[in-house]
Amino acid sequence: MNKLTLLLTVGMATSSPLSYGINITTKVANQGTQISQVIGKEGGISDEETVAGLKNALNTGVENAVKKLGVENGYFNEASVKIFLPNDAKRINEKNIKLIPGGKELVEKTILSMNRSAEDAVKLAAPIFANAIAKMSFEDAKKILMGNDKAATEYFRKATYSELKAAFMPKVKESLDKPLVANTSTAQTWSLLTTKFNAVAKGPVGTVSGMQPVTTDLVNYTTDKTLEGLFLKLAEQEKVTRRNPAARVNDIQKKVFGQLD
């Protein structure tokens, strides 16, 4: 049995599909004996089983990332993934926000609402990623295992981003339409803010100098930012698991990634 096959073999714990909110750590640990028996048999593992092992590890990483983000303040209180106003709305600054009735409060509410929508929608990402993982080939798995600290994250971004976005966008829109903050949806807050700002921006010449209306598609923007934050957390999870032995929370992880130390 070559080294690559051994490394991938010890990663296999279960081929059960990922579902958000299910703790699979116990399942993985309970199957340690079965995995040891398979490893002990020379040539006792197929390419299909090898791929299944890495897929399970990736599913675990996705689940952990989704759990971190899919809670209240998962995005809003995390500086690295917090969603702010789109670029063309950043002109709604301290200088001209006073021109909009209730402008400061609207901006704060819009930012909070966008992050609440991301926190709500990201919970639905797990099965979409699971489907992408299910399509992974043996060659894909081999490259990921032997790749850099972000090899799996890079695979997801390059191979599945368009598909993920297309499938995820309706979920984000649904979330943006939910009354998540003060019984008001993000879409309603955004519409109120931009309508008021654009009315000022389009006012009589000389009223406000150099202002352009805000035209960002909020659904597209929030989808991109939600996925961007998810990929960032996936990369962090992958790097920690690969590099930090203390972060390997069970025997299976210690066996898999210990071989790469």
Account of the protein in words:
- By secondary structure, this protein is mainly alpha-helical.
- The protein has one domain (3-258).
- Helix content is 61%, strand content 0%.
- The chain is elongated and about 60 Å long.
- The model is unreliable at 1-45 (pLDDT under 50).
Taking the alpha carbons of the first and last residues, their distance comes to 19 Å
Low-pLDDT runs of 5+ residues are: 1-45
Shape, per Cα inertia axes: elongated
- Output the structural class: mainly alpha
Mean pLDDT: 74
- Strand share of the residues? under 5%
**How many domains is the backbone divided into?**
1
Helix content: 55-70%
Rg over CA atoms: 23 Å
Q: What's the number of extended β-strand segments?
A: 0
Total number of helical segments? 11
Question: What is the succession of H and E elements?
Answer: HHHHHHHHHHH
| Biggest sheet record | none
Features of this protein?
single chain; 261 residues; mainly alpha; 0% strand; elongated; disordered N terminus
Layout of strands and helices, then pairs:
Elements: H1 3-10, H2 25-30, H3 32-39, H4 47-69, H5 103-121, H6 125-134, H7 138-145, H8 151-176, H9 186-201, H10 218-243, H11 251-258
